[in-house]
Amino acid sequence: NTPVLKIAHVVPPGDPRDTAANHVADLMRNSDACPMDANVYPSAQLGGTTDLIEGMQLGSIEAVVLPASFLVGFQPIMGLMDFPFFWPTDLDTLLELHQSDAMRQMLDTTESQGVYSMAVWHTGYKQWTANDPLRAPSDYQGKRARVMPSAVLVKQQESLGMTPVDMPFPETYNALQSGAISAQENPITTSYVMGFHEVQDYLIMTNHGNLDQIFMVSRAWFDGLGADCQAELEAAVEEGRELVVTETLSLEERGLEAMVEAGIEVIELSSGEISDLREATLPPVRELFLQRTGDEGQTILEAIESEIGR
Amino acid sequence: MTRVLGRLLTLLDHTIAWLAGLALLIITVVLFTNSMSRYFAGIAIIGGEELARYLMVWMTFLGSYLLVRVQRHVSVDVLARLLPSVAVRVLDIIVGCVGAVVLGFMAWIGWDLASFIMNTGQMMSSLPIRRGWIYMSVPVGCGLMAFAYTIQVVIRLAGGELPRPERFGLAGGPDEQAAVVASESQESR
Amino acid sequence: MPAAILLSAAIALIILSFPIFLALLAATIMTFETVGPPMPSRVLAQRMVEGVNVFALLAVPLFIFAADIIGRGQIGRRLVALMEALVGHLRGGLAIATVLACAMFGAISGIGAAAVVSIGPIVYPALLRAGYDRGFAVGLILSASTLAMMIPPGVAMILYSVQTSTSVARVFLAGLSSGVLFVILISAWAYIYAVRNDIRSGERAGLKEVGRRLLGSVWALGLPVIIFGGIYGGVFTPTEAAAAACVYAAFVETVIYRQIKPWQLIKISQPSAIMIATLLILIAAGSLMTWYLTLERVPAQIAAVMSAIPTEGVLAMINVVFLMAGMFIDPNSAVIVLAPLIQPAAMAVGLDPVHLGAVLVFNLAIGMITPPFGLNIFIGITTFRLPYLTVVKSVMPFIGLGIVALLLITYIPILTTWLPRAVHG
Ligand code: NA
Ligand code: NA
Questions:
Q1: How far apart are CA C53 and CA A281, in angstroms?
Q2: Are C150 and C409 spatial neighbours (Cβ–Cβ below 8 Å)?
Q3: Structural domain contains residue B120
Q4: Given this model, what pLDDT does residue A237 score?
């Protein structure tokens, strides 16, 4: 009886996380120890965002790759992943942190929802794009920006005096074009693929956060696998984790080049400007997070802070 | 006895129609206010978008109940137009039985789903409302539809006629309805 | 195999006159429960809800609500008066004014039947008085009314965009292009008709009269300005624009034209909400079926088969399927059920999704006036109190015109794709 593995995500084929998900599916299909009937369903074919995670709880989907932000409705502690100016901006340090015990402690909080968060897949640092060169916190004042429905991200924008607009992702391009919003935050790869550079003048290299993906599986399904199957899957997801980084970096390089060619101006910030932005955003976000998540949130936050050395 | 039941049913129908219409009005006001306050005052109502979606889902299932009551769901009624009225009556009974079973089943698994999601304690992304409430529209709406199909079977078995769409300002279809309105407004001129 | 069972059960029930949503639900549930895959049944309820829990879909109820408000008011009458003053003195002027009034009305309304009842009763007697034949007049009104589907905003275009994740703004512009093409074709036909039958033109309206009528319809003309000015000026997103259209239409009809009393809006909302549910419940049931077929990889299999056929052949097949669907069911239901099944195949042979949207919507517009069950035919029967066969005969030349336009749109993609590309890159 071959186990079925449906991996669902919401981006089009060809995105780094789709490539990596297909790699995982290939490995599992061709596995000697534990061959699976593995398929990837891209482009929200099996559901939008939140309902994919529910699908795992209901038993209709085995695996999902989604930004951690979408887990916040299930587990507020995952909001930590959205913290601004908090995560290491050195890629190797960040990837190492992702493998740490403190990080595992945070990922394990989704167990209460029947979700086993297997790994963090890094898909790039977030940068702002805007029609103005946003440098100082005061530059952000009064700007309307698209926000993902996450309390932490809303707070981050509000603490800069912005007006966060929770519009659906597919409407973002037209809203930027018409001026309904004038800024948005995403990794370079996403901004490039969505063509945001066509309707924005500046790319501001803030590296202020991550939109990292969680590769998660249904806990009930995972526990039903044999020990060798579990080990095979762990290994495949680990290979996917490495692949997604190389794919992201190469797409990022191509994207940045194309965006510059298309006439977008890249703004590099000084470390002083970065720390001004951090001072304006991180403390209020941290306070909100602790209010919402209580002692458990504080324990995990402090564990990760000490791991980072902050 | 039948008269009292008939009155109760009418009361139910009108209540549902009010709720569905109210949902539509709230959706309109929320989205309009949201865009105006954002553009002119720089204030965005976080959660307005989500609330509008939830109301749309509820409107779908509530409106569907009324569509069953007045037989106005979209269908290819080529066959029904050709059949004699006895056969149409049999067809109504068959459709009613299948509808009652299928939607009764849907209501039951919808209840299973809604209570499951309620228990996970999951919240809407931007409003302090449990996400389970969106799924509660299935047991309520499909339960009502199963009920309406059962009534249809009973009425048709007893040889009665089903309620007319005019009761809800729906003449035949959206277009006949518009035609009626057009002739009304011509008269009033 | 499960897919074959599901589809044949659904088709059998639909032929038996079952409501389509019930046919799709019954067939999907039956197949799911008997041949699997093994999953808890509550997933079915989740997929139904998530099918309608879509932000962009909100534009559909709102534009229908707006159309309902407009349909009960004064806006149609004022547009006709204006267009008559502008082009009434040309050869075939009154007929062309009718087409243009329908086109303008289309820029306000999103459904292809509303103009028949809003504009038809006003222009029909005038056309007969001017010497146009009854059949021509009816055919002209019924076919020009379908322009509302192509000229944005259009409910069918919104549904297509949602069902296939295509940019609404681009599909709108492609629809606008095909609408303009159809306006030109019908107007040219009206001109030829007027010349051949030697129909007198009206008198040229004085500048003062034009000005007066322009002023009289300024509030009506304001609606498209607000919608598109608002979207492109950054006041609202396309979805919010639909809400703005409702509020504006309600304002104009209650406060300016005083055709509707404010409390009546509450009453209008009920039939609107109920009619909207016909589409939304179909989307719920349809997306459950599509989800199941996707699990069974059916769209991918259709795509694999289609990819062996040349693009022209695929387009011809799509046209035949949608023209036939348009004859039997309303256009929006056809988009909901068929677009998700056909789109992966169309993408596999390299069709532009924006072009495909224009082609599909145009097909369905023709379906509105094609016998046996074109919607506008039945509205024509009620509005003009004419027998079925008379109305069917009257639309025949216009179906011919529609097919000419469809062939142009289908096989010369640039006709519909250049505008969205020029605007959006
Ligand atoms: Na329109
Ligand atoms: Na039709």
A1: 33
A2: no
A3: yes
A4: 98
CA B38 to chain C, closest CA, distance in angstroms equals 8
Contacts of A283 (CB under 8 A, 6+ apart): none
The model's confidence at residue B184, banded by pLDDT at 50, 70 and 90, is very low
ipTM of the predicted assembly exceeds 0.90? no
Most confident of A276-280, B118-122, C150-154: A276-280
Q: Using CA atoms, how far apart are residues C166 and C355, in angstroms rounded to an integer?
A: 11
DSSP string, C52-91: H--GGGGHHHHHHHHHHHHHTSSHHHHHHHHHHHHHTTST
- The position carrying tokens 């299999």 is C301
Chains touching A, CB cut-off 8 Å, 3+ pairs: B, C
A4/C contact by beta carbon, under 8 A = yes
Q: Does residue B57 belong to any structural domain of this protein?
A: yes
B116 vs A58: CB contact, 8 Å cut-off? Answer: yes
Residues C285-306: what's their mean pLDDT?
82
**What are B89's two structure tokens?**
């009556």
* Residue B172 domain-assigned (yes or no): no
Domain that holds residue B44: 2-162
Q: How far, in Å, CA of C357 to CA of C361, rounded?
A: 6
The answer to whether residue B134 sits within a structural domain is yes
Whole-number mean pLDDT of chain C? 87
Do A73 and B43 lie within an 8 Å CB cutoff?
A: no
Is a pLDDT exceeding 90 seen at residue A180? no
Q: How many other CB atoms are there within 10 angstroms of residue C206's CB atom?
A: 10
- pLDDT band at residue B171 using 50, 70 and 90 as cut-offs: low
Question: B186 vs A51, A303, C14, CA distance in Å?
Answer: 49, 75, 38
B46: Cβ contacts below 8 Å, ≥ 6 apart: A147, A149, A154, A164, A166, B126
User: Residue A263 gets which letter from DSSP?
Assistant: T
What's the structural domain count of chain B?
1
pLDDT digits (tens, 9 = 90+) for C156-195: 888 888 777 788 888 999 999 999 999 999 999 999 999 9
